[in-house]
Amino acid sequence: MQEAMAPVEIYTRNYCYYCESAKELLNRKGISFTEIDITGRPERRAEMVNRATGRTTVPQIFIGATHVGGRDDLYALEAAGRLEHLFAAGAFSGPQEGATGIQSGAGEKRTSQEHAA
């Protein structure tokens, strides 16, 4: 069972290298996340822009209540050794090991292994 950690959400769109790169870092670190695909979904895009205080690029990444920013911001936190602190800062009980849920834009949940395929 995972230690308590903040929930991670990432807004993405289809064919986005930066989105894939950010998800790859999260997967490599074994971090569960919910993916919100905004492709063709203006209501989800508006939600992202509102939460990201006007930022319109993808990905936009949230760890708990903290808006991390985009892919470069995520990698900068990792390089500075501050990423783990954000993951541990929340009061979220993560899913059982191997139950990494990734939510696509259509709302279905898939494991990280199914998502990577």
- Structural class call reads alpha+beta
Q: Provide the CATH superfamily.
A: Glutaredoxin
Q: Poorly predicted ranges (pLDDT <50, ≥5 residues)?
A: 91-117
Work out the radius of gyration. 13 Å
| Strand order, largest beta sheet | 2-1-3-4
The helical percent reads 25-40%
Quaternary structure state of the chains depicted: single chain
Number of domains: 1
What is the CATH topology descriptor? Glutaredoxin
Calculate the mean pLDDT score and round it. Answer: 79
> Quick one: how many beta strands?
6
Please count the helical segments. Answer: 5
Main sheet properties: 4 strands, mixed
Measured by DSSP, the beta-strand proportion falls in 15-25%
Which series of helices and strands comes N to C? EHEHEEHHEEH
Characterise the protein shown here.
With 117 residues, this protein is α+β, with helices and mostly antiparallel strands. Helix content is 36%, strand content 20%. The protein has a 4-stranded mixed β-sheet with strand order 2-1-3-4, sandwiched between helices. Strands 5-6 form a two-stranded antiparallel ribbon. A hairpin with a 2-residue loop joins strand 3 (60-63) and strand 4. Helix 1 packs parallel to helix 3 (71-79). The chain is globular. The relative contact order is 0.24.
